[in-house]
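Appendix B, example 12.
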Amino acid sequence: MKIVVDTNIIFSGLLNTNSVIGELLINSNNSLEFYSCSYMRYEIQKHWEKLKKISKLSDQQLTDAQFHLFERLKFVNEELIPGKIWEKALSLTRDIDVDDTDFVALTLFLKGSLWTGDKELYNGLKEKKFKAVLNTSDLSKYSL
């Protein structure tokens, strides 16, 4: 099963690798393949100091956590996604949160499911009959 992981899931996993999210990312069975947008790596670096402050982890501890999470992810360059898919993704996210368009586009491109901790995105996509969206509770049924 192809799972596209959005930034808030990675943030949560970095803040606590022993959480359900961390366990799913690091220790889930091999039937789950995790993907994310290349842009997400930039987002992590952009918020690095905030992540350190919230987690109370040292640079080294946070780097170690990032390494363990990232080794489970396959990053996909957003430029590989065709324009028609971008249009469809934008139509789904336009009135929810356009910042999540990349993740929805990657989900459509890979024919996978989007894993998000963003309740507004999750509920908004469900209202639009987009079935390929999961929250942590949904995903844990598949893996743990």
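DSSP finds nine helices and five strands in the chain. The chain has a mean pLDDT of 91.
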